[in-house]
Structures are given as C-alpha cells and as structure tokens.
C-alpha cells in the first residue's frame, strides 16, 4: 500500500512539473536565471521560453556579429545558437538589475559574458537585456552591446 501511495505521488509530481514546463517555464524560473542558464550552458532551449512568436526583438551587438535590427524569436535563437557554436563560456554574471521587486513589469539589466574562441585568450563583452512581463510570463524585447 505504501508503494502504491508513493508511486501515485511520484506520478502526480511529474505531471505537475510537465504542466509547468508546458506553460512556458517562466513560472518555474525567473527570467534572469533562464538567461544565465542559456549563456552558461551554451544552449538556447531556455531562451525559447522568453521569445514570443508574434513579436520582434531588437538586436544590436557588433561584438557578437549581430547587425542592428528587429528579429523574430526564431531568428534570435538561431543567431545566438550560432554564436555558441564558436564560443565557450568562461563566465556569465549579471552586473546590475538582478535584484527585482516581485511586482516589476520591466527588467533592464546588464551582464558580463566572458568567453573563449578555440584556444584564444578570454574575451569579455557587456550585454544589456530588456524584458517585459506580459500575460503572466516574461518576453525578451532587446539585446545590445554596451560599449
């Protein structure tokens, strides 16, 4: 009987986690934790939680090879995935904007990304991110170099 109760509890817990993941993931993770994971792991899967199908995202990052302009969420994910193919993350840290009030509807934050291309010396770029809260989740609106 105990095993049955444990098995049912485990199944219900897994179903709950699957529901949160299907809802977009931003309910289970703060948006800055998501971005941090994207850069530290070099994987854009988490970024897909922060892009909206119908909205454009402003990119301006000559140091990462992005021409200034507005891009779809899919384009942003493809561009950043391409960056991760040649760059290995050494460090990724938020410098400001990471301490958010719980009721905030807009995040403007600055991060420092240190990476390596092959066996080269470490390179560092500072990147500004802007996100807005919409429909109960977070949406990435802007990514730009800070020169």
Put the structure in a nutshell.
The chain is an alpha+beta fold.
Q: Could you walk me through the main structural features you see in this protein, from its secondary elements to its overall organization?
A:
31% of the residues lie in helices and 35% in strands. The chain is an alpha+beta fold. It has one domain: Roll (Nuclear Transport Factor 2, Chain: A). Strands 2-1-6-5-4-3 form a six-stranded mixed β-sheet, covered by helices on one side. A hairpin with a 4-residue loop joins β1 and β2. The longest helix is centred in the first third of the chain and has 21 residues, at 2-22. The chain is globular, with a radius of gyration of 18 Å. The model is unreliable at 1-28 (pLDDT under 50).
Report, as a whole number of angstroms, the end-to-end distance.
64 Å
Overall, the morphology is globular
Q: How many runs of DSSP E, i.e. beta strands?
A: 6
In round numbers, the mean pLDDT is 81
Name given to the CATH architecture = Roll
**Assembly state here?**
single chain
Strand order of the largest sheet: 2-1-6-5-4-3
Descriptors for this entry?
globular, Nuclear Transport Factor 2, Chain: A, 147 residues, alpha+beta, 6 strands, disordered N terminus, 31% helix
Give the topology, please.
Elements: H1 2-22, H2 31-41, E1 57-61, E2 66-71, H3 73-86, E3 88-96, E4 106-116, E5 123-134, E6 137-145
